[in-house]
Specification:
The structure holds three protein chains of three kinds.
Chain A lengths: L3 H23 L4 H25 L11 H6 L4 H22 L1 H13 L2 H21 L2 H26 L7 H20 L15 H27 L6 H19 L9 E2 L7 H20 L1 H11 L1 H6 L4 H27 L1 E2 L6 H14 L4 H17 L7 H15 L12 H5 L4
Chain B lengths: L1 H31 L6 H25 L6 H28 L7 H23 L4 E2 L8 E4 L2 E4 H23 L1 H11 L11 H26 L2 E2 L3 H16 L4 H21 L5 H15 L16
Antiparallel strand pairs in B: 1-4, 2-3
Helix pairs in contact in B: 1-5, 1-7, 1-8, 1-9, 2-3, 2-4, 2-7, 2-8, 3-7, 5-6, 5-7, 8-9, 9-10
Chain C lengths: L1 H20 L9 E7 L6 H20 L3 E3 L2 E3 L1 E7 L4 H15 L3 E3 L4 H13 L4 E3 L14 E3 L4 H16 L4 E6 L3 H18 L4 E7 L7 H9 L4 E3 L4 H13 L6 E3 L6 H7 L7 E4 L8 H14 L5 H19 L7 H14 L3 E3 L2 E5 L5 E2 L2 E6 L5 E7 L2
Helix pairs in contact in C: 2-11, 3-4, 5-6, 8-9, 11-12
Classes of the chains: A mainly alpha, B mainly alpha, C alpha/beta.
Chain lengths: 432, 307, 392
């Protein structure tokens, strides 16, 4: 008996020590190191993924870490797990840890250069990771692009529902405006189609004009936001909720009645310009600008208005102007996301932008966390991924996802990562 | 003239449903300051419960070879379904809203929305994709009054809806419980200090709202006898518009706004080409709110709103 | 430490063993058929019909021991993806089935809202796709790889108009349709055009609409009644048909109501009851008078799932049988799915007089079928009786 006690104690001590020790040693890895690790992992997958998949008797390189596969063929679970371990977990951990020395030095060096340069370097690496990762499967590419569009959408609604503290329901409407405005622009100028006839400019010029199309989409949504903002910000309260809801119905019904843009049949044949670099750049710019916006004086004023409008007013904040600008700003990005959506799905109908989409957007923003840029990213990515992964469950998916959301809401009422600033310096900085 | 009167009848019937559902929204909104986005789906579940109760009662009556008169069947169905649905309302409050009482209001709205989705798909998983035909509880009789067509069901629907509204109004204004609710709607932080428990008032609010939704659902099933798990969504969101339009703290306002919404929808379809119905109807709502920013009967929000 | 590593080693070895267990089968060419159906979302019934029809087909093939192509029998697998009745999910589902699962043919999506964008994907990846139900011209337009199994509105609209003129000799028509849904809107437009060609301008005295999910049509029906229309044409889905017909009768509109193939579901009568008896609609086949393969299909489906199949199930059945025919006609597979897809597409375009349960089909240049329609009367027993056949 007496001999056993120290044994268990030591073994327990060691067991308890292993995971924290790995955690501790990985804590010294800076963001740069992780990116390098992931890059190595995706390159490994690119090079030997197919061979390894064949060896493990997987039908193909698993698109979303094998998760979609496993629900359909549970027998493949060990193979998929092994694949993920061998291709992702081990290389990422090993490379990140082993390279921690020089990546930390590089991170220190990057701390001395202007922040935008450092950000660009990291973004470049992140793009490289995505590029190589999505090379393996077009399905993966499409899922990644749609997730990035969802990130933009979630961020844009967080400006209104999180930072401004109002309850807006019109985001599908703004997205529809953006999608239609940008599609009309591109179809009119660059594409021969059923609705507008011959193209006015050669299609090869098109990609250069795509940013303009997106801005036009955003501007259309912002104008729509003005229609909502003027009546609703005359007073404090929940009227924005129903005015924006009414606005959503109005947009849908209006598009249905404009035959030149296809009416209820929708508008199709947009050029496929939402490529990975375009969407990635759009998302990066969106995160950058929204993050700057919410950390600016305007963003702080917005928080002040949310927390106490009268006090904010007394502190010389022009509350009405602040709210209007923020609302239009949020709508603008929803419009841009709509433009990307239209050029990815390449067919838009007014029916797509309805209550169902509203429920999804709201779920993403409240799941991720209010008043937080990181939260929006987390929310959009996780809800989109969960929803894609659980698809084989069919009906039961729609019981499980709400259950997850309810539990998250009960245990973390403001969402997973709420009220946290997105501190780029801290994230990118060295860990030593 | 007959054309116009006919549309008045149509609007009265259609408005009754908006009004009955908006009442449930408005009660929770007025007293707890929460958006109860489950309500549309509670309405749907109430209709299905009513369907189940009516079918069971008919089966029971047949088994006992006892011919039950239609009105008795209807009254029994409504009462039993109201009771069962109010239990559902209490459960929703307990599971979805009570844990979030200190949380941002919007978070509670999201749990409500999610419970709604679970009710829809739970229904689909249990009952399958088949649509059900609501049993015709009482025989339809059509009357032609000078070119205006009335049915006994239409009269019944509007009558029962009005009766329930008056009953609710009396309850809120004449009883002690009603008084407690009204007090709660002024300030739900101070009133509990005076010996009125929020844990009693909140479930009661949900129960009454859900019971009204169930009654509305049965009437709806009699008028539009095709049941569908997703039938509550659009109706629910539109009634939400009516509830807020009525103004905070006003039960009467919600009922009137419900009827108003019904009238706007029916009459825009009457006057303009019906493709433009939603466009024009909701533009009118937008205009109303521009000029009456506090809704019809509501007062400005005095208390500081939580997020 | 040792405990943990023992556990890790155990887990790893179990995993390896299972990997080798799951690998017993040799890799062989499997013909995969993709089904892109709205299993969740607002029209789960449509998804269920497509799924059941496809599974019935699979049973047949499995009973026969596989699909005979040339001189070899290939095993067949279905890949069923849920498109949640959303455009972007339909696009994702198609991409997934084509690039991940390597399907040879895709059946679906059903609604135009999803079929148009999903058709774009199928065409880009050169994978043949047959939409059983979508009537939007954009679905197949300029897309050599996309086909459909239902007839188009320009055909069905005039059929209904001519039938009413010949049968009743009416001159004033009313139309009630769902403006937000592709199928009713297209059919309403073509019906209006055809009717005005026969009876002169302004012979459609009321042309009213509503939006998907509406249940109250009283205002529109009051207008229709007031316009003095002699009959009502309403190309709606069965759940709306029950409401429209009942409300029309309650408002005192007792003139005939004519429908289209979307009425052709058993639920029309179960939801609508006696109100619908005696009404006419144009469709692909008459369930009560069905013969041969059609009857066999209906009986089998009913026995298995407890209800008479909807038109969408029958059309899915035809679409998948068309795909089977095309695969068989290739005369042999190369094993390279990309080449086989092109071969299947070429065979699909060549199919002549295919005997489907919803009528004989031949594809046009655009990939749209040419087939006959029948007029069905709902009898006083609530059955669909064959009344007349109309061919283009």
């Amino acid at each position: 008996m007496a001999t056993q006690i120290p044994q268990t104690a030591t073994s327990e001590h060691a067991t308890a020590g292993l995971l924290p020790r790995i955690g501790r040693s990985l804590a010294t890895v800076p963001a740069l190191g992780w990116l390098v690790g992931v890059l190595c992992a995706v390159i490994i997958e690119y090079v030997i993924g197919d061979t390894l998949a064949v060896m493990l008797y997987l039908p193909k390189v698993p698109a979303l870490f094998g998760t979609t596969l496993v629900l359909k063929q549970p027998l493949l679970f060990p193979s998929a797990l092994l694949f993920v371990l061998l291709v992702y977990v081990l290389p990422i951990g090993a490379v990140a840890r082993l390279s921690a020395g020089w990546t930390n030095r590089a991170a220190v060096a990057l701390e001395r250069v202007p922040i935008w340069l450092s950000v660009l370097v990291h973004l470049g690496l992140l793009y490289a990771v995505l590029h190589v990762w999505t090379e393996a499967s077009d399905y993966r590419l499409q899922v990644a692009k749609l997730i990035m569009i969802a990130v933009m959408l979630t961020l844009s609604i967080n400006v209104i529902n999180g930072y401004m503290g109002e309850f807006s329901c019109s985001h599908p409407g703004f997205m529809a405006l953006g999608a239609y405005a940008s599609s009309v622009f591109t179809l009119l100028l660059f594409k021969q189609d059923r609705l507008f006839g011959a193209a006015l400019l050669p299609e090869s010029l098109g990609p250069y004009f795509f940013p303009i199309a997106l801005v036009i989409g955003g501007a259309a949504a912002a104008l729509g936001a003005l229609v909502v903002a003027i009546p609703s910000f005359r007073t404090r309260g929940d009227y924005l909720a129903i005015i924006s809801l009414a606005f959503m119905f109005i947009v849908k019904s209006a598009i249905e009645n404009i035959e030149p843009i296809g009416g209820p049949r929708g508008m199709g044949g947009q050029p496929h310009w939402s490529t990975l670099p375009a969407v990635f750049a759009g998302m990066a710019i969106c995160i950058w600008i929204i993050n700057n916006f919410v950390r600016s004086t305007m963003g702080k004023a917005l928080n002040a208005v949310r927390d106490n409008e009268i006090a904010a007013d007394a502190m010389t904040v022009n509350t009405r102007r602040t709210k209007m600008v923020a609302f239009m700003f949020g709508a603008f990005w929803a419009g841009v996301a709509g433009g990307f959506y239209a050029h990815e799905v390449r067919h838009v109908t007014p029916g797509s932008f309805g209550i169902q989409m509203l429920a999804e957007i709201l779920a993403m923003v409240y799941f991720g966390g209010l008043n937080s840029v990181v939260g929006s990213i987390v929310g959009a990515v996780s809800i989109s991924m969960i929803s894609e992964i659980l698809k084989p469950l069919q009906l039961y998916k729609w019981i499980i996802i709400p259950l997850i959301l309810i539990l998250v809401m009960i245990f973390r009422p403001t969402g997973l990562v709420a009220f946290r600033d997105f501190d780029i310096k801290r994230i990118l900085g060295a860990r030593r | 003239m007959a054309f116009f009167l006919q549309n008045v009848i149509n609007a009265l019937q259609w408005g009754s449903f908006y009004a009955l559902i908006a009442l449930g929204y408005s009660m929770v909104y007025s007293i707890l300051m929460l958006f109860n986005f489950t309500h549309g789906d509670i309405f749907m579940t109430g209709t299905y419960i009513g369907f189940g109760v009516a079918t069971a009662l008919v089966a029971l009556a047949t088994a006992l070879s006892w011919s039950m008169p239609g009105w008795l069947l209807l009254v029994l169905t409504i009462i039993i379904a109201m009771f069962l649905t109010s239990i559902l309302g209490v459960v929703v409050e307990r599971v979805g809203y009570r844990p979030l009482r200190e949380a941002p209001r919007a978070s509670a709205a999201i749990t409500g929305l999610m419970i709604g989705i679970m009710l829809e798909y739970g229904n689909l998983a249990i009952l399958g994709t088949q649509r059900y035909n609501f049993p015709s509880i009482i025989e339809t009789a059509t009357y032609d009054v000078g070119g205006v067509f009335l049915t006994n069901k239409k009269i019944l629907i509007v009558g029962v809806a009005l009766l329930l509204m008056i009953a609710l109004h009396q309850f809120i204004h004449k009883t002690r419980w009603g008084m407690a609710m009204r007090a709660m709607s002024y300030d739900f932080q101070v009133v509990p200090l005076m010996g009125v428990s929020l844990n009693v008032i909140a479930p009661m609010t949900f129960a009454i709202g859900s019971a009204l939704a169930a009654a509305g659902g049965i009437l709806y099933g009699m008028a539009y006898p095709v049941l569908d798990p997703f039938m509550g969504i659009l109706l629910g969101w539109k009634s939400f518009v009516a509830a807020i339009l009525g103004g905070r703290g006003s039960i009467l306002g919600a009922a009137l706004a419900g009827f108003l919404l019904g009238f706007i929808e029916i009459f825009t379809a009457m006057v303009f080409p019906s493709t433009f119905r939603d466009l024009i109807a909701y533009s009118i709502i937008l205009l109303i709110l521009t000029f009456r920013p506090y809704g019809f009967f509501g007062q400005a929000h005095s208390a500081q709103l939580r997020l | 430490m040792r405990k943990l590593s023992t556990v890790l080693v155990l887990v790893f070895s179990v995993m390896l063993v299972m990997v080798f267990i799951s690998c017993g089968k040799k890799r062989e060419t499997i013909i995969k058929i993709g089904i892109n159906a709205p299993i969740t979302g607002d029209i789960p019934k449509v998804g269920e019909g497509s799924k059941f029809a496809a599974q019935m087909w699979l049973e047949d093939i499995e009973k026969a021991g596989g699909l005979q192509v040339g001189d070899k029998k290939y095993p067949v697998a279905l890949v069923i993806e849920d498109n949640e009745s959303k455009a972007e999910s339909a696009v994702k589902a198609n991409t997934k089935m084509i690039t991940e699962d390597g399907v040879m043919v895709i059946i679906g999506p059903q609604s135009s809202k999803q079929a148009v964008p999903a058709g774009g994907v199928a065409n880009d990846y050169q994978t043949p796709m047959i939409s059983p139900w979508s009537t939007n011209p954009d679905t197949t337009k300029d897309r050599p790889f996309v086909f459909r199994a239902c007839f188009l509105d320009p055909f069905q609209g005039p059929v209904a108009a001519k039938f009413v003129k010949e049968e009743f000799g009416f001159t004033r028509a009313a139309v009630l349709y769902d403006v937000a849904s592709d199928y009713p809107k297209g059919l309403a437009e073509f019906f209006k055009k055809a009717w005005e060609e026969i009876n002169g301008p302004d012979s459609v005295v009321a042309y009213e609409s509503f939006t998907t999910k509406d249940t109250d049509f009283s205002s529109q029906l009051t207008k229709i009644k007031d316009s003095g229309a002699e009959f009502l044409f309403t190309p709606q889905y069965y759940n709306e048909v029950a409401l429209i017909v009942k409300q029309a009768h309650e408002l005192g509109f007792n003139n005939p109501i004519i429908g289209s193939d979307s009425w052709g579901s058993a639920e029309t009568v179960s939801l609508c009851g006696e109100d619908c008896y005696g009404l006419f609609f144009s469709t692909h086949y008459a369930a009560a008078g069905a013969q041969g393969a059609t009857k066999e299909f209906i009986d089998r489906y009913q026995q298995k799932h407890g209800y008479v199949p909807d038109d969408v199930a029958a059309l899915t059945w035809d679409a998948i049988r068309l795909a089977q025919q095309a695969i068989e006609n290739t005369g042999g597979l190369t094993g390279d799915v990309k080449k086989d897809r092109i071969a299947v597409r070429d065979q699909l375009a060549k199919i002549k007089d295919f005997a489907g349960i919803t009528g004989n089909m031949t594809f046009t240049e655009e990939g749209d079928p040419i087939k006959c329609a029948v007029i069905v009367r709902i009898s006083d027993q609530g059955e669909y009786e064959f009344y007349k056949q109309v061919c283009p």
